[in-house]
UniProtKB/TrEMBL annotation:
Gene Ontology biological process: siderophore-iron import into cell
Record's protein name: Iron complex transport system permease protein
Family: Belongs to the binding-protein-dependent transport system permease family. FecCD subfamily.
One annotated Gene Ontology cellular component of this protein: plasma membrane
Native organism: Paenibacillus taihuensis
Protein's membrane topology: Multi-pass membrane protein
InterPro entries per UniProt: ABC_BtuC-like (IPR037294), ABC_transptr_permease_BtuC (IPR000522)
UniProt keyword terms in alphabetical order: Cell membrane, Membrane, Transmembrane, Transmembrane helix, Transport
Amino acid sequence: MMNVDVEIKRSGPAGTTAKLVLGVAALVGMFAAADTTFRDLWHVLFTQDRGDTITMLREIRLPREVAGMLVGAALAVSGSLMQGLTRNPLADPGLLGLTAGANCALALTVTMLPHTGYFGVMVACFIGAAGGTVIVLGLGAVKKGGLSPLRLVLAGSAISRFCMRCRTVLGLFSKYPKT
């Protein structure tokens, strides 16, 4: 009789996480307003069927689940970068002026350009968040030693306060328009 050694490969943490995410996505895909089964999910992924349930899963639910997973991954990466940059395990977007910059840009856009559409407001908020972050990074790197976590957090706090005060002033003046 011959002895055969078989090496079992383990997937590791990344493989286990991927399997878990796909399993949860499959379960979430099943439990919604319309009744779906594992068979429907199988048809969505591996056949070209055109039934109503299959089309609904393929055209509506699947893209939303994939988008949700990608957004979650992007948020995880950005949070990890922020925590690493500030060396603070409790770091959040408010530390670097992102939230306040977006909020200030929102108030400015709604006050000065009240008929701006949804997309225009979103672009303004993105520009405000990016602008607040650039200012914080610039103020944090002004000194000779470059960026330090302490200077970064202090600059972020100062810019956040400034942007919030600007938003408050805009709110006060927009409530009582001059006639």
